[in-house]
């Protein structure tokens, strides 16, 4: 039986910016978003020429707060789906700490995440 993945986490990571979106796959719209491009986040972070894992954690925390305001921190009971291996492959191995920082920022703030793959294949979160 396949699980319907209504809400999906999408990450966009460049050298200067980190953006995280939660997309409703039923109608293709973005439900909540957080990014280091926003002035409120840009002023509090010292990104300079590149953003680090600390900035990614803040993006995850802000996205979690916005999901709670929308009432979607549990994804209507099914959770918010993400495929970490796919995200790490798309973003490059160097950005794996940023991907995990966003994921952990969401988890630590009470967002129910469904990770769709086996995370014990070498891409596990880095030691703190």
From TrEMBL:
GO BP annotations, alphabetical order: translation
One Pfam family in the UniProt entry: Ribosomal_L18p
A single MF term (Gene Ontology): structural constituent of ribosome
GO cellular component term, pick one: ribonucleoprotein complex
InterPro entries, per database record: Ribosomal_uL18_bac/plant/anim (IPR005484)
Superkingdom, taxonomy of origin: Eukaryota
UniProt keywords, alphabetically: Ribonucleoprotein, Ribosomal protein
Family classification: Belongs to the universal ribosomal protein uL18 family.
Name used for this protein in its record: Ribosomal protein L18
Organism: Linum trigynum
